[in-house]
Amino acid sequence: MGLTCYVAIDRKPENGCEIQNAACGQSGIMLRLKLVKTAAEESTTTQVHDEHLLHGTNVLKFLVSPWSFSGRIVCADSYFASVGAAEELKRNGLKFIGVVKTATKKYPMAYLQALELQGRGDRRGLVARDAEGRPSLIACVWMERERRYFISNAHGLAPGTPYVRQRWRQLDQTLNADPVRQTLVVEQPKLAEVYYDVCGKIDQHNRDRQDTLGVERKLVTTKWDKRVGLSIFSMIVVNTYRMYMGLTYPRGEGRSKKLFYEQLAEELILNKYDAAMRMPRNSNELPNRMGHCPPAINHLDGTPRMGTHAHLTPTKRKRKGTNFALQGNCRVCRKKTKYLCSCCKDAAVATSKEAWICSTEKGKLCFSRHLQDVHSS
């Protein structure tokens, strides 16, 4: 016979730390974080004119304050969502969509709960209007597997793009009958579409940080200051990957997370980024200083890469009469390219010749051979 059991677990250990985050809904980049303090410390930082707001609203207002009066849409879970949060963000020039669960002050929860819905995709709502009769807020319920309650001043109940899922269904009730794969199409309002398109970005960021990168799991520590430092460092690394992918491969292709993290670690270890660089006094010093270039071959897997000193840089010169970049013949394979060797480009004051070299993006070894032939001594 099973016995009921109640287990109380602290949200964080004594002297521990909790972090609240705001992320970009498109790129998933973590934009701002807040370290949770004790209640006494939080009370000293709360503004006098914000004392009437709920705690979640105060936190939300702090996280999104750099984007006030930008007209952006803020999507928040039930920790932050309330009628007061929507009203406060509207006063700060922001739009809001949130899922309401417990913060029901001024929210018509009882009325929406009493409404009869026909099944998945059905929705009902109430609209609040301002003094001029224009819609200012909408409170609605949408039926998915269960009822979802929203508060919004950004979108309403206009039809959004239906979401499609593949599900197994046991249609044949005979013994040992196989289930059937069915396509499930559910109608959803526009506010639900916008909310669920972005609501998982922070969870995805946390999964990349904790599971894929796993620095906190590999560098185990019992000191919370180091634990928080590792977490923040891991957030920066994941942000770097997401920024790189968004700028370099906007269509979604590109290298894997694991490969990117390995190459980033290689570039960060034994680097000279913080070393003071002295400009050469004359052009005769350039060959000596540029001769010690790092290898362009990854010693772990043999793939070509750009070094930290000698590297490929795209030319800034334009073709005559166009806005396209100037191209030249690669010194190794003689194919067209717009990239130059940085060492040769700096030393070109004396030779006045461009050192065209193919990029390593498609696995070409022209840059590696150029380094070995010209800059290996």
Give a quick set of tags describing it.
377 residues, alpha+beta, 5-stranded mixed beta sheet, two-stranded antiparallel sheet, 12 helices, 13 strands, PGBD, Transposase IS4
Proportion of strand residues: 15-25%
The number of distinct β-strands equals 13
Q: Rg to the nearest angstrom?
A: 29 Å
Q: For the report, how would you describe the main beta sheet? A: 5 strands, mixed
Unreliable stretches: 285-294, 296-303
Mean pLDDT over the full residue set: 81
Summing up helix and strand content along with how strands pair, one would put the structural category as alpha+beta
Note the gap between the termini.
Answer: 79 Å
Organism: Nitzschia inconspicua
Protein name: Transposase IS4
Domain PiggyBac transposable element-derived protein: 6-241
Pfam families: DDE_Tnp_1_7
Explained architecture:
This is Transposase IS4. It holds the Pfam family DDE_Tnp_1_7. It comes from Nitzschia inconspicua. InterPro entries: PGBD. The chain has 377 residues and is α+β, with helices and mostly antiparallel strands. Among the domains are: 154 residues, no CATH class; 92 residues, no CATH class. It has a five-stranded mixed β-sheet, with helices on both faces. The protein has a two-stranded antiparallel sheet with strand order 1-2. A two-stranded antiparallel ribbon has the order 8-9. A hairpin with a 6-residue loop joins β1 and β2. The protein starts with 18 loop residues before the first strand and ends with a helix. About 5% of the residues have low confidence.
